[in-house]
Design a protein that fits this description.
With 223 residues, this protein is α/β, with parallel strands linked by helices. Helix content is 21%, strand content 41%. α1 links the parallel β1 and β2. The longest helix is centred in the middle third of the chain and has 14 residues.
Amino acid sequence: FTLVHGPEFLEELGCGTGRIQEYLYEKGWNITGIDYSREMLRFSKKSRYSPTAEMDMRSLGFSCCFDTVLIPHNTLNLIGNIEDISACLIEVQRILTPGGILVLHLFVPDEELLKQPGKRHFQFSLFDILPKKKLIKETIRMYDGKTAQLLLEERYKFRSFNAPEENRNFSQSLKLSAIPFKTWKNILEKTGFRLITAHAAFSGTPFIEGKSSTLIIKAEMRD
């Protein structure tokens, strides 16, 4: 997936520490980021240069001034229910200029999860980060069919073979809305958008419903 460079003004919702936002800013884009987390934005103020603001995605304090809105990192999945997701997208439509573009990076459940509600799915990865130091990442996923949510736990274990006392463990748990592609299409249509493309990766890999768990959507405002 690529953005066509021009005089456009971009908005990133859920910018966090500003990693994507700052990359686009350094490439010459006019981009503003918002996030609900004050701690994340404090980090961005220390090391980033593009403008940010603390704001709720469901109530954006902007007028109609952006040509493209980006919502990456499964941020919409974190909202938790269709009503609030729809409220966010209605706000996005309000701040987009005529013909404006919306880009979404979403999680969608694949067939493996949908067919096995309540089952814990475990994934393990091992990375060499420094000589004699490794990072172990463990991911546990479980789909709750009653709430249509994914329960996600990520564990990070730093292991050093030089000084065992340096070993550290971190973990985080999240709940993501696990709604299928068809539901996302319906939400977009009801909030005034038209789907342009759907991919399984930013590289342009075609999205295959039931097989892909990553969904990259490009949509535009309907006339």
